[in-house]
Amino acid sequence: MLLAIDAGNTNVVFAVHDGKEWRGRWRIATRADRTSDEYAVWLLALLQHVGLNPNQILRCVIGTVVPAALYNLRRLCRDWFDTEPLIARAPLNWGFDIRVDQPNEVGADRLLNALASHTHYGGPLVVIDFGTATTFDVVDSDGAYLGGVIAPGINLSIEALHRAAARLPRIGIGRPQAVIGRSTVPAMQSGIYWGYVGLIEGIVARIKAEYGGPLKVIGTGGLAPLFAEGTLVIEKTDPDITLEGLRLLADRNPPPVFHHSALRDPLRSDSD
């Protein structure tokens, strides 16, 4: 079995794949100071709850956009699963070209989305990921990663609006019944929701014009279904794109060699 760990700015998602299907997915708030033992107590209880034996996990793969969280996630794999994790980074064998100026600067999540979306849906396409940031990633017909767009995430925009305007409350995200809000909260909800729909439609239109041809548009992330309701631009939503990318990357690359000397060695460098 494979343990896939997707560490984002807001949540860390753990998932187990048995070679045929995902057997479980769990998430915990991202905290850079969370220790490997804390992760283990939580994760082992969840594995037991669904009838999975930790000894069945023979491979681990980590994708993270939070460098400070990597050390303890790597220790989790070493100390509790006797496995050296594969770390999603640009120099690995992705099976496609990374056609940007600085490949090492591209977030692992964006490359993972490109890998899984092209494998499952073909190309060319745009992947919109509704996370802490809202990202638009462009994948060519041959699977090559061409770059994309990074915009502030919806929750960031809501929090900024609340903090910057003393009389505006913190609101939840939802599709408003009308565009014209007749009180403060509906007006804010309309601005956030339809504002992001406009952002999605506008950026996708400009990407297609610059690309010079049709592009499929795939949405992922927890808010993808909500925004897909408000626009015809998003053709398909898939919540598992990033996890699928981790699985595919682990299948494409040999597992790193695990050295038992790495167990519980606090002096071992994270770059080892």
TrEMBL record:
A monovalent cation. Ammonium or potassium. The active site is at D109. Keywords: ATP-binding, Coenzyme A biosynthesis, Cytoplasm, Kinase, Metal-binding, Nucleotide-binding, Potassium, Transferase. One of its GO terms (biological process) is coenzyme A biosynthetic process. Pfam families: Pan_kinase (PF03309). Signal peptide: none annotated. One of its GO terms (molecular function) is pantothenate kinase activity. Its cofactor is NH4(+); K(+). InterPro entries: ATPase_NBD (IPR043129), Type_III_PanK (IPR004619). Substrate binds at G107, A108, D109, R110, T184. Its main location: cytoplasm. It catalyses: (R)-pantothenate + ATP = (R)-4'-phosphopantothenate + ADP + H(+). Gene3D superfamilies: 3.30.420.40. It is an enzyme of class 2 (transferase). Homodimer. Catalyzes the phosphorylation of pantothenate (Pan), the first step in CoA biosynthesis. Belongs to the type III pantothenate kinase family. This is Type III pantothenate kinase. It comes from Neoroseomonas eburnea.
